[in-house]
Amino acid sequence: MLDLRQYNCLGEALRSAVDRWPDEICLIEADRDRENARLTYRQFKEAALPLARALQDAGFQNGSRAAIIMTNQSKWLISAYAIFYCGGVLVPLDYKLTADEQLKLLAHSKAEVLVVEYHLWRAIAQAHNFGHLAARLVLVTEAPPKAELHGAKRWEEFRDAREPVFVRRTRADAACIVYSSGTGGRPKGCVLTHENYLEQCVALTSLYPFWPGVRYLSILPTNHAIDFMVGFIGPFVCGATVVHLRTLRPEYIRDAFTRYKITYMTLVPMVLKALEQNLRQRFAGLPAGRRKMLNALIAANRAMTRGRPRLRISRALMGQVHEAFGGELRALFVGGAFTEPGTLQFFYDLGIPVANAYGCTEAGTAITVNDLRPFRADTVGKPLPGAELRIVNPDAEGIGEVHVRSKTVMSHYLDEPEMTAETIVDGWLVTGDLGRLDRTGHLQLFGRKKNMIVTEEGKNIYPEDIEAAFEGLPVKEFCVFAANYLWPARTMVGEQLVIVLHPEQGHALTQETIANLTERNRRLLNYKRVSGYVIWDADFPRTASLKIRRIELAEQIRNKLGREAVVPL
Amino acid sequence: MTTLDKTTDEILQLAAEHFKVPRERLSPSDDFFKKLGINSLQALDLLTRLEQHFRIELPDYELQGVSDFRTLAERIQSRL
């Protein structure tokens, strides 16, 4: 692994990496059972440098911003390398947002360059606010030969063979602007510095090292903070291989494990759960004798790995299971949302450690990670090396708000000094999550103090961001809340949103209004929908500028109504 | 019956079989996530079944933003 203490910016570290391991396989891109690309680090450099030079020819320079909107694939990394090489600031956007939302964040980030996949560009070009796109250069990948490009250039042809000029940045400079929310309300663009990423990479690889020959399976898009770190920066600075799979279908994920002999992989809880269900079904279908034998082997493995994982023993005991995962899997990483302890324990008992982590965009990638020594399914692990945690205003059980101080905490929210001052107080990041540190230093989570939910797909949903979908509803006023914010619950799974409706005075809520609400809800992406509504018969408390006082309203509702008042939609 | 209606009907039939629900409970405008109680991974599973039936290939992104059978049928129809 490169000694990252010697580097000041991601561009510098990545440039050293491609020169250090020229003949190692750097990227493999698979689409179902086909292989689209296989590049060594030398070939990766040869693909990225002409793009960097063409960007520089087009005026892209030190501190310029470039956004990427792409699914999970190799061109994401090639583009990001070129952007960092030019000293640019990367704006990774979620390809699953709607075109309107993407345009809004593009405008907020002031990205001059946009790199985007053709099918996503097609949707952006059809959006009603397309005219507001301010990027002066758009590069579209994989466009069909005669496609209408709406002024964009083809990524594949945007090349200049001359040597680009490498631009060095300082550790304090912005590396990325990552949006944690704000597609509907005020955008929260987390400005993460080169130091944030370099420090995070050192901390994570000290626990889970990569080296040449390690193959990391990437199924999450690289805009996802975890994949950006453990599916790009981490493997690259260690000379490892990243295998991109351009589908999330379980049958191809299973196939990729065996075909590419995968060492590590990151999943969100939903995918991990699907793998668990599939295995449980297969175990249930075994003849009684074999099932009994399997249970005995699981019990033996559990006893022998109580203190720490012992891969050789587990692979010997549970040979068939490990073969199904390619035989070389060392650990699965899971993050983005809370994972149920039962699922983590299920895999650990099979000898497949799942390193669950806890973090937030504002803190870089991760704050705590399960170091597996010993494995603790009931916690989200210990703070990463270099991260300090404190529990603020703990109750009698020691549960309070989690604050973190670390070199990985973002610099600020883009153009939002007030919001930054509320979030980073005296150097401590206020997470809004409720937790407790146990005697061994492991963090346990018990819900949230903040008004938001996280889905099992790892999506953070802020109520303010979806309220626009209900504008025009024939009621006097409405407000969306996380149900667990209105009625605190000590859980981080199955979180839901509810809409509070205040009908016009003297008017009951009609069937038409409910139908209207249902239709608007249906038009939202499935994970952004509200699960029910609450009828509220008093005026919402508001500020002088007529903004809803959400904290006060939540308190009023909590004091008067219980969770049973929610009418499911 | 138009070609799109026929495609929609076949999708409803296959979805009913795949998720073991009575065919008559499903209609073209239904939100399949809600009606079938499935998540996006299970919806991809249905997409695989539909690919086999219609002998086409649908990238995962074709399902993005789609939640009702009728729109799904339109996406499939455009590739037939």
Give a structural overview.
The complex is a heterodimer of chains A (569) and B (80). Chain A is of the alpha/beta class and 569 residues long. Chain A folds into three domains: 4-260, Rossmann fold (3-Layer(aba) Sandwich); 268-448, Rossmann fold; 455-568, GMP Synthetase, Chain A, domain 3. In chain A, the strands form six sheets. Chain A has a nine-stranded mixed β-sheet with strand order 2-1-11-10-12-13-14-15-16, sandwiched between helices. In chain A, helix 4 (99-109) crosses helix 5 (118-126). Chain B has a single domain, classed as ACP-like (Non-ribosomal Peptide Synthetase Peptidyl Carrier Protein, Chain A, Orthogonal Bundle), CATH 1.10.1200.10. In chain B, helix 1 packs across helix 4 (69-77). In chain B, 20% of the residues are buried. The model of chain B has no long low-confidence stretch (mean pLDDT 91). Chain A binds chain B through residues 71, 95-96, 98, 119-120, 246-251, 270-271, 274, 456-457, 522, 525-527, and chain B through 31, 33-34, 39-41, 44-45, 47-48, 59-61, 64-65, 67-68.
What are its keywords?
heterodimer; A: 569 residues; alpha/beta; Rossmann fold; 3 domains; 9-stranded mixed β-sheet; 5-stranded parallel β-sheet; B: 80 residues; mainly alpha; Non-ribosomal Peptide Synthetase Peptidyl Carrier Protein, Chain A
Q: Largest inter-chain interface? A: A-B, 21 and 17 residues
CATH-derived architecture of chain B: Orthogonal Bundle
How much β-strand is present in the residues of chain B? Answer: under 5%
Form type of chain A: globular
Tally of alpha and pi helices of chain B = 4
Summarize the structure.
Chain A is α/β, with parallel strands linked by helices and 569 residues long.
